[in-house]
Specification:
Blueprint (H helix, E strand, L loop, with lengths): L8 H7 L2 E7 L5 E8 L4 E7 L6 H18 L11 E5 L4 E5 L11 H12 L18 H13 L7 H12 L7 E3 L8 E4 L2 E4 L6 E3 L2 H4 L1 H4 L12 H19 L7 H9 L16 H4 L6 E2 L2 E2 H15 L7 H17 L16
Antiparallel strand pairs: 1-2, 2-3, 3-5, 4-5, 6-9, 7-8, 10-11
Helix pairs in contact: 3-8, 4-5, 5-12, 9-11, 11-12
């Protein structure tokens, strides 16, 4: 009964009568079906479940995803997300357009970057309050990062705390209103004949698009399949993103990509899957245990991020001390645990 298709009379009237359904793999926080209707068209039915939350929290996640999808539906030209065909609020059910995914391609990042910029450019100041503001690193995250350095016997330059405090101010999402997906990871980007479309907007928010453009450099921080992108394709995809954003908005992308990457570095919760975020200080675990998420360990993710921030801030006006600390920390981690592996190359991304 728990997996029975939740399709009431109102949904039947809105989109048609279901004749066949298949339960698909999804997170514990939702159930998803592929459904064939009487007219032989396909739709996706997604129901948000409690998944360990209270009913009120699940209601908020449902409202957040529907709001994000509807804002994404503003796209003119190729769509960037599936259309919302109908909803059943009491049951937390949405009926979505079915997308035919073209599957694996060797050159997946340019289309991803273009669609990500198009998604981000869909909203502005008038949409404030339509979604929660992006939730970034906090003062507690900064302190945990410094505590990690001390636990590994790495001296912390006196300027680092001031730099991190100023960083948190610069990362304040209040001035920014880009439509952020919240988890733009492999599997949530589908290749269609019209371009890349994103699905699963459960963490949609408003903020600075650079925090998701940073995924290419920082190793896809909310994804189990962290990846490394080397210099040539990295420059290409960032140029595509910035050009697309400028063409749509008439403005340069605001903010500093080094800030966004450093924000991901100091967040311990970006080392674990969603179910474990907000439970313990994840950075405090690193000196004593190397916990895995997917096939990549926390220390391996952290070494990659430290190296990225060290490289980006070598001549940075506002993060120079943080960059030096990051470089020293990376060396210390690799010296203490020399068998840590580099992140897999982006060509190894999984396909679903």
């Amino acid at each position: 009964m728990l997996n029975r298709l939740p399709f009431d009379e109102a949904l039947r009237s809105a989109v048609g009568i279901p004749k066949w359904s298949k339960l698909l793999d999804s997170s514990p926080r939702s159930r998803v079906w592929r459904v064939r209707l009487a007219d032989r068209s396909l739709v996706i039915v997604k129901q948000i479940t409690d998944g360990g939350d209270t009913g009120a929290d699940a209601d908020k996640r449902f409202a957040r995803e529907v709001a994000g999808l509807r804002l994404a539906g503003r796209a003119i030209g190729p769509a960037v997300a599936p259309a919302v065909l109908a909803t059943d609020l009491p049951a937390r059910v949405m009926v979505l357009e079915h997308l035919d995914d073209l599957g694996k391609t060797d050159d997946w990042m340019p289309g991803y970057a273009e669609s990500l910029a198009r998604l981000h450019a869909l909203t502005g100041p008038a949409d404030e309050g339509a979604l929660p503001a992006w939730s970034g690193p906090t003062a507690a995250d900064a302190e945990s990062f410094l505590a990690l350095a001390r636990a590994l016997d790495v001296p912390v330059p006196s300027a680092v705390l001031d730099e991190l405090t100023a960083l948190l101010d610069r990362l304040d999402p209040t001035p920014h209103h880009a439509l952020l997906h919240g988890d733009p990871c492999p599997g949530n980007d589908l290749r269609t004949t019209d371009g890349v479309r994103f699905v699963d907007f459960e963490r949609a928010s408003l903020g600075n698009g650079l925090v998701e453009l940073a995924y290419f450099r920082i190793g896809f921080p909310t994804c189990w399949c962290a990846m490394s992108v080397n210099a040539a394709p990295l420059g290409e995809v960032e140029d595509i993103y910035r050009t697309t954003w400028h063409d749509l908005t008439g403005r340069d992308v605001p903010g500093d990509l080094a800030d966004a990457c450093t924000g991901w570095l100091i967040q311990g919760d970006a080392l674990v899957e969603r179910a474990h975020r907000g439970t313990v200080d994840q950075l405090a675990r690193v000196p004593t245990e190397d916990f895995e998420w997917g096939y990549i360990s926390a220390r391996e993710r952290l070494v990659h991020r430290l190296g990225v921030v060290a490289d980006m801030t070598r001549d940075h006006d506002h993060l120079h001390a943080v960059g030096r600390l990051s470089s020293t920390l990376a060396v210390r981690l690799l010296k203490r645990w020399p068998k840590l592996r580099p992140l897999p190359d982006h060509d190894t991304r999984p396909w679903y």
